[in-house]
Write a structure and sequence with these properties.
The chain is α+β, with helices and mostly antiparallel strands. Helices cover 46% and strands 14% of the residues. 21% of the residues are buried.
Length: 775
């Protein structure tokens, strides 16, 4: 079956890159229509109503939280009276904000660690940890911002499902470049030397092997510049380069030498520069010896995250069960003209597609046509008749909605693959060819965060606004009644004489109620506020706190802790999967020059190339929500200290315990203070070797008695030295031997006693020689 007649879930041949046919576009647009239809009737009414619940929006609101008859239509009078209470009870918003803060803090404070899954990967696990922390640190504010958006979508929306898009983003921008004749010649000369060096190395390798192999890129490369004679083979590389430089100067200075060749050479050094601009630069170099021109540069080349909201940034059929097995889904971006034009360079979008989206460029510099503000996937709001309607296109002024379809398809061998197509709903051609998603992890570019797993369907998940709406509505009723009673009781109506019966009786604060009987005026005595209402408000709060796991004297602490721990556990498990994708992209795409910029805490470079971070791994994210309680951390530290005090046989390694406590207290402090155990031991050993050299010189080195050094490790060093050479200490002169034996004795006492009694450790021995300046 020809490619144009195949459905989108079948591709011709082996699959891969292919033109996007009109039938394929038509099928993708039909999928868009289907999602729009089902979401308008199911998702959007609930989404709009739940946003109103969270942000306390309803008709006839006033900024002061009271009901004013001026804002009511048809001369209606607010109930129960004008200026009655109209409180905004923000129960849903409070619950959402609390959970968002908990989740984001857990992500920020979680300890990231890698573990190798094979013996050959274990040594590289530490390198992977350093790279991952460096990536997160480099995201900076963007990391926090995307976590905040993601946590809000994940907790507040209905359905409570969010997508964290994960991709390797390469983005270009423009910068002004100043170029002189000498600088251009240096670029040319460097290229010539590299080609000549590669050719020479290839010749040597061929002669040594005696067998001709595949030609190298240098051998198959075109001459350094067409029209300039190549230096002869076999001569010195520097001499050839000097000759090439002279030829280049002649070519640049001679107007007979065409601009086309020089412009093409310039484009090799500055990729992305247009031919017309390159020719203009060459003319400037010939006339003035220098030129200034804009050139594209790589603004971003690394892993990128973006939190995406369901039915706003991404769209999926409601019968989808698993994201990575989804038949199809869409992402939508609202882009400016500048961003769309930039995609031609960074992503290879076609000129024809760009012109149809933003309009055809006219001779006067304006654009005609285009599809500004047109939405294939619109947002919806409620109109004055309480109907769900699409948002006005004015909301998207200056923006264009670009769609990306991600879908699965099988090739002729039945092998499935994941593909994507970039298009606009109103344009009859795609932005570029259909592409195979070539990420090594083999999945769609992102991870789904689903708040609840109620059924097999992905979108069956409720948000907090939906769950808290009932509590919030009842709480508002009772709070408004309390506010109204407070106004009536604080400034009650006044009863006066000669009241005329004139229609219905209205009650409000300080209203005058005329009476027929004689006598002076009197305040009306309102009824006492019902105790049952107060009890009901208290019960509503208890039920809310119990259901959502908030601290309350009448809610079991174990239940509160259980809910917090599970919320953090589920969130971090999902975040872990997302970071695994991020690191797999680093293994696949991170440029060597970026790898080489990664340093340790001392500023030392760690890696030479991407090969240094390859291997299989497991990623851990660890955070305990109890760590947010200082009293819990204090008790934990005391327990650990007491356990170490009774560990006389030293069955526990203290380094992991110290690291864990520091990370829990402050991740920043831990990152700055902690060193690798092997590195710490190496530094201790090197320091004691220096002390031994001082002893050999007859100088008694200081021995800290405050537990700041590893006494046992240093004693082990001397035992190892004696094991390798039993006579090493016997040749010491008496004064040196006295210093050495005193140091060993003091270290033994300190090692035995320091953990149990610091003071005993400090009094465990005296110096062999009097300290300088002391008697």
């Amino acid at each position: 079956m020809p490619e144009e007649n195949k459905p989108i879930d079948e591709v011709e041949g082996d699959g891969g890159i292919s033109l996007v046919t009109e039938p394929t576009l038509a099928e993708l647009k039909a999928e868009v229509d289907q999602i729009v239809t089902e979401s308008k009737d199911t998702i959007w009414p609930l989404r709009v109503d739940m946003e109103s619940t969270r942000f306390c929006r309803w008709e006839h609101q006033s900024p002061d939280g009271l009901k004013h008859k001026e804002v009511y239509e048809n001369q209606e009078v607010p109930e129960p009276f004008d200026c009655a209470s109209d409180m905004r009870v923000r129960t849903a918003d409070m619950l959402i904000n609390e959970e968002v803060m908990l989740l984001v803090l857990s992500a920020m404070r979680a300890q990231v660690n890698f573990k190798g899954t094979e013996s050959t990967d274990t040594k590289r696990a530490g390198n992977m940890t350093i790279v991952m922390r460096w990536v997160i640190r480099n995201w900076g504010v963007k990391w926090i911002k995307e976590l905040l958006k993601l946590a809000n979508y994940f907790t507040a929306d209905s359905p409570a499902v969010a997508l964290l898009g994960i991709c390797w983003r390469r983005e270009t921008a423009l910068k002004m470049q100043t170029l002189t004749v000498d600088e251009l010649m240096e670029l040319y000369l460097k290229q010539v030397v590299e080609i000549l060096g590669e050719n020479q190395q290839s010749e040597v390798s061929s002669q040594e092997s005696g067998v001709g192999g595949e030609p190298t890129p240098a051998e198959t490369a075109t001459p350094p510049m067409e029209g300039i004679q190549e230096p002869g083979a076999g001569t010195d590389i520097q001499a050839q380069a000097d000759q090439a430089a002279e030829d280049f100067k002649i070519a640049l200075g001679s107007e007979e030498f065409g601009e086309d060749i020089l412009a093409a050479k310039l484009a090799e050094y500055f990729p992305g520069i247009r031919t017309a601009r390159a020719k203009k630069v060459i003319r400037g170099l010939r006339e003035k010896g220098r030129a200034e021109f804009p050139v594209p540069y790589i603004k971003q080349d690394g892993p990128d995250l973006q939190a995406k909201r369901l039915n706003e940034d991404w769209f999926i059929p409601l019968n989808t069960t698993e994201f990575q097995k989804a038949r199809i889904y869409f992402e939508a971006e609202w882009l400016t003209k500048t961003q769309i034009i930039e995609r031609k360079i960074s992503q290879g979008w076609s000129d024809a597609f760009i012109e149809k989206v933003i309009g055809e460029l006219q001779k006067d510099g304006t654009r005609q046509g285009g599809h500004e503000g047109e939405a294939a996937f619109p947002d919806y709001v409620r109109d004055e008749n309480n109907q769900i309607v699409a948002r006005s296109s004015i909301f998207y002024k200056g923006l264009y909605q670009i769609l990306t379809a991600y879908y699965q398809a099988t090739n002729e061998d039945g092998v499935p693959g994941k593909y994507f197509v970039v298009f606009h709903y109103q344009v009859d051609k795609a932005a570029m060819k259909r592409q195979l998603i070539d990420y090594a992890h083999g999945g769609y570019p992102g991870h789904i965060f689903q708040r609840e797993v109620l059924t097999s369907r992905l979108c069956d998940s409720r948000g907090l606004a939906e769950l808290a709406g009932t509590y919030q509505g009842l709480m508002k009723v009772y709070c408004d009644s309390f506010g109204d009673h407070a106004q009536i009781a604080g400034v009650p109506p006044i009863i006066t004489r000669n009241r005329q019966r004139m229609g219905a009786l209205h009650i409000r604060p300080l209203l005058e109620l005329q009476a027929k009987r004689d006598g002076d005026f009197a305040f009306m005595k309102p009824p006492e506020y019902p105790r049952t209402v107060v009890d009901m408000v208290k019960e509503l709060r208890r039920q809310t706190d119990e259901y959502f796991g908030r601290t309350n004297p009448e809610v079991a602490p174990d239940l509160v802790q259980l809910q917090k721990e599970f919320k953090v556990f589920w969130w971090l498990m999902n975040l872990r999967q997302a970071l695994v994708q991020v690191f797999q992209l680093c293994q696949q795409y991170m440029p060597d020059e970026m790898i080489q910029r990664i340093t340790n805490k001392k500023g030392e470079k760690l890696f030479k190339s991407r090969e240094d971070i390859q291997g299989q791994f497991d990623l851990d994210l660890q955070f305990d929500p109890r760590d947010l309680d200082p009293e819990y951390l204090k008790n934990l530290f005391e327990i650990i200290t007491n356990i170490l005090a009774i560990d006389h046989d030293k069955t526990m390694r203290t380094a992991p315990l110290v690291a864990s406590v520091l990370w829990r207290l402050s991740p920043d402090l831990a990152d700055a203070a902690l060193v690798d155990l092997d590195q710490a031991n190496a530094e201790e050993t090197a320091d004691e070797i220096k002390a031994y050299q001082q002893i050999r010189a007859g100088i008694e080195p200081d021995l800290p008695d405050d537990g700041s050094i590893n006494y046992e490790l240093r004693l082990q060093l001397y035992q190892n030295m004696e094991g390798m050479n039993p006579d090493i200490y016997r040749s010491m002169p008496p004064d040196q031997l006295k210093i050495f034996q005193s140091r060993l004795q003091r270290m033994q006492v300190l090692a035995q006693q320091f953990g149990e009694n610091v003071q005993i450790g400090r009094e465990g021995g005296a110096r062999a020689l009097p300290a300088t300046g002391k008697i």
